[in-house]
Amino acid sequence: MNNDSALKRLVSNPDFSRLLILILMFALTAVLQRNFFAMKSIVRNINSFTPLILLTMGQAVVILSGGLDLSVGTALSLMTCVLTSVMKEGAPITGFYALGVTFAVAMAIGMINGIGIGYLRIPPVIVTFATSFIWLGIALFLRPTPGGQTVEWFQAFYKIRNVEGSPPFLDALGEIVPPALILVLIGCLLWWVVSRTKTGRYIYAVGSNSQSAYETGINTDWVQMRACMINSVFIFLAALFFVGQNRSGDARMGDPLTLKAIAAAVVGGIALTGGRGSVYFALIGALIFSFVSKIIFFANIPNAYQTLFGGVIVIVAIAGSQIYTLSSRRTVEESKLT
Amino acid sequence: MTVLEATGIRKHFGGVVALSNANLTCRQGSITGLLGANGSGKSTMSKIITGVYSADAGEIRYNGTPVRYRNPNEARKNGIAMVFQNLSLVADLTVWQNIVLGAEKKKGLFLNNRAAIALSREIVDQLLPGLDVRKMVHELNPGEMQIAEIAKAISEDPKLLILDEPTAALEHAQVKSLFDTMRALVDKGVAIVFTSHRLWEVMEICDDVVIFRNGANVANVDFSKDVKDPEKIVDYITGEAGKAKIEKSRRTVGDDIVLRVNNLNYGRFLKNIDFELKRGEILGIGGLAGQGQRELMLALAGNYPGVTCDVELNGKKIKLNRPANAIRNSILLVPGDRQLEGLFLGHSVFTNIIFPRLGLRRQPLFTPEKKYRQESQKVVDVLSIVTHNLDMPVNSLSGGNQQKVVVGKWLPFHTNVLLLADPAKGVDVGAKRDLYEYIVGQVKENKMSVILYASDNEELIGYCDRLMIMYEGQIVAALEGEEINDDTIVATSMRVDIGRGK
Q1: Whole-prediction pTM value?
Q2: Sequence-ordered alpha helix ranges (H) in B106-198
Q3: What domain count does chain A have?
């Protein structure tokens, strides 16, 4: 195999087109946003991208396993409400209680979705559409209006320097490596570990062909449930960031993120039919999506048209990568023939 | 030593008896061939042994103890592996990931991928050197997929290996290396059950053969004692009964050619197909199942845009790139799977009969309901479709009547060529006779031309003026007149001539 064909194969890889789009969006944003490379703007960008990145990666895991989760947004809202309900201002220890309780809630959310998708074999769209209202209902019960109490140190999930009395070296570290980035890295590490275990392999197998997987002796229901629970961990991480940033819980804040996370996963090359794609590329999809909104914001497009333009850019990006993939695959196949 | 002994196995699906009294014995370190015509119960038997189906009656003894597995996984854990006819691979995983799927070994916390790749490579190299085990399964061709499937079965060190038509997708060289692997396994003491429609393969590799007909054993031939006589085995497969049951109706076929097909190609499915169809002729297409007959019918009906061919209809060149084109040229298809391809199941008889009409050019803006209803009623009367009224949903009709509706939807059309893909599949005897009588009548009166594919040789023998036998996407023989009989069909279908040539 010579270098020429290796390059050709890289170029014909559909993921390559996604990287190209990412670079394009990155460049556009860099041109439009003043001080794009200043530390401050970098941190600000990372902060605004983080919730979507985490939710997209979680969603990608569920889609890979052959499911789909329409309840991620309200699950995120619910977790922020639980966090801010358990915490009492001025009692730092309640922060740990909140972490424990909310993680348990996250696992319960994953299990309930998993039971519906896996064991009961209800179409995932139906299950998670229904559970999204349950999460919303509980969240509204806990917190009819945005608010709630948080402990001081919880801001460490957003900006370490805001925490009074934190050691100076941690403050300095937080300036270089923002906590949001650490949360994303924790998410990546989680998937890195999972993808090297049976669970990761089986998520692909079940999503690709659950009948074959079942006949091979894989407990497909349990695998789908595990995928939902991994998704819950990602949502949990996003909830920590959100509460750290806003110091409040909001029963409505997650709604618009649900469909964005699904769309971003698709932009990142996750096939909605399951089994195909990469969670890391879902992260890239989320980045592309986030840059699009930045571009629209900085391009001075009138407010009224921003949403419209956002939609058009996403369609153009996906169609472009589709056309690119098809045409490059054709050239590779033709070169095989000759 | 006997590894497996299945005795008196019975199994029926609904009213259809798949196995009536079947026996199968496998010995350690030997290869048992399982032979029989389509639908004789070979696959059912294999699936009962591995727990896909459960038997209605009979006993299976594995290593001397009676067993009854509930699923293939349970059988596999006990050392019975099966290579399925329909592949059980996961397309979005690599070859090696598929081979170790469900039996992954861990190294510390993580999966031991390196060992898995090494193991897979070792197995695959015996079967098909040069196949990269890191390729995704969806990138493989059918032959390579079959190899991967076999490798997966072998990787579990089975004591009994059931290979259900593993060679159907393989090329000659691949078959040879599979046979080498099978011999190596046998030397290690594995018992193998091997089914194939290619007679020469069975003659070459098997130590003994068991022949099924209509769900029961008709013969056991032990090659160590008995002579290897392919003609005799063909006789066992076809049997004496059922010969010339249908009274052949005499017709005169004209000389003018309606359809001339030259050099029709479609990927690996159809290769260099040439034939002519005369006016008022019933041209049969036969052969083993899955040799491209279905694809040929669909190609002629314009379902494959990728087909390359020269087609002349009544001396005029036509294109077959879309179904609408074929229909406009009055080449009409009655598809093989009526429920999937021929009907809108939940809709009424009326809707189904009238539907092709709506696709024609120059349709009135509003459907002339009354006129169409009268026409539909006529179709129902002519074909004597048994239905309460025109508005009954089609899926409430019996199989035979459903098939009549599929034929009936073309009735108001002028027909140059009628393509019948296994029209009598799952249709009871009476309805089958009605259907064929109607078609033969049309051929006689209106000089309609018909291409008939049937999986049942009896129908081909009974109704065809000429018969083409297909094998691996090619037409390998054309039979005429007295040549169209069961023995010749089976012998040419199974390529007994190839076996002799070796």
Answers
A1: 0.73
A2: 113-127, 142-154, 172-187
A3: 1
